């Protein structure tokens, strides 16, 4: 899948969001670059489609409370 970054946004296929591709952080499983997702204040691997951090557990957290189970929930 094609992934690009421009003007503070990341595009993965036809999915676009605010964030950045990290050039110095890598997935421990597949070694691909991690992606930072601004809306959820969290890193994820687009190849594995998994978050690198778990939810904080606070139901009122403005980041974790609305975070989907997988970053690219359309996969």
Question: Topology of this protein?
Answer:
Layout: E1 3-6, E2 9-12, E3 15-26, E4 33-37, E5 42-45, E6 50-51
Antiparallel strand pairs: 1-2, 2-3, 3-4, 4-5, 5-6
How is this structure best summarized?
This protein has 75 residues and is mostly beta strands. 0% of the residues lie in helices and 41% in strands.
Defining key terms:
75 residues; mainly beta; six-stranded antiparallel sheet; 0% helix; 41% strand; globular
Radius of gyration: 12 Å
- The number of helical runs is 0
Write down how many β-strands occur, each being a DSSP E stretch of 2 or more residues: 6
Order of helices and strands: EEEEEE
Shape, per Cα inertia axes: globular
Sheet with the most strands, sense and barrel status: 6 strands, antiparallel
Strand content: 35-45%
Distance between the termini: 11 Å
User: Please, what is the average pLDDT?
Assistant: 92
Helix content: under 10%
Total domain modules: 1
Side by side, the strands of the main sheet go 1-2-3-4-5-6
Structural class: mainly beta
């Amino acid at each position: 899948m094609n992934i690009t970054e421009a003007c503070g946004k990341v595009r993965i296929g036809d999915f676009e969001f605010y964030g950045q591709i990290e050039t110095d952080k890598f997935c421990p499983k597949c070694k691909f670059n991690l992606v930072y997702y601004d809306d959820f204040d969290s890193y994820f691997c687009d190849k594995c489609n998994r978050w690198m951090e778990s939810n904080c557990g606070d139901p009122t957290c403005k980041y974790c409370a609305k975070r989907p189970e997988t970053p690219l929930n359309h996969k």
